[in-house]
Amino acid sequence: MAVTMESLESFLLRLRPQAFPPETFLGLLHLLISGSLADEQGNRPFPGQSWRDLSSVLKKVRWDPSMVRQMGIDPATLAPRDRERFWYQAICMAKIDSPEAKRSAQKLKGWLDKFGYRVQV
Predict the structure, then answer these.
(1) Does residue 1 carry a pLDDT above 70?
(2) Sign of dihedral through CA atoms 85, 21, 37, 71?
(3) H, E, C per residue of 48-115
(4) Which of 55, 64, 78, 117 would disulfide-bridge 112, Cβ 3.0–4.6 Å?
(5) Which tens digits make up the pLDDT trace of 49-103?
(6) HEC per residue, 19-51
(7) Residue 38 phi/psi, 5° resolution?
(8) Cβ proximity of 6 and 13 under 8 Å
(9) 116 DSSP assignment
(10) 61 CA to centre of own chain
């Protein structure tokens, strides 16, 4: 599991400074939790992350908390001092299995190609 978490951390650190396509953070969460990303060899490097593990990694890489606004969530309503809990609450509220999440993931298809990953939704 540690190798997967380290590779997920590296992946998110590569993405963090990039300009995301508009309204796609929900899609990213959907892809990471459903395990629908494949690398250039067709392997699934992040085979379905748990909400807790993903929350932990988002905290560790210091992901921008304002990204939850893309999902219609006000960051002020989430745990302000405990970032892992903040991200867990955001994921719980995000409706990551909704049709909207799948559409958002589709918008990431071409964008993630430049990082060597394919969306398989």
Answers:
(1) no
(2) positive
(3) CCCHHHHHHHHHHCCCCHHHHHHHCCCHHHCCCCCHHHHHHHHHHHCCCCCHHHHHHHHCCHHHHHCC
(4) 117
(5) 999 999 999 999 999 999 999 999 999 999 989 999 999 999 999 999 999 999 9
(6) CCCCCCHHHHHHHHHHCCEEECCCCCCCCCCCH
(7) -125, 145
(8) no
(9) T
(10) 12
Residue type, 64: D
Q: Which two tokens stand for residue 99?
A: 């049709």
Q: How far apart are CA 99 and CA 94, in angstroms?
A: 12
Residue 102 CB-half CA count within 13 A: 5
Q: In whole angstroms, what separates CA 8 from the centre of its chain? A: 10
Q: Closest by alpha carbon to 121, among 49, 30, 53?
A: 30
pTM: 0.90
Among all chains, which residue has been given the structure tokens 């060597």?
116
DSSP at 18: S
Position 14, amino acid:
R
Tokens representing 17 are 């400074």
d(CA 72, CA 12): 22
Length of the chain, in residues: 121
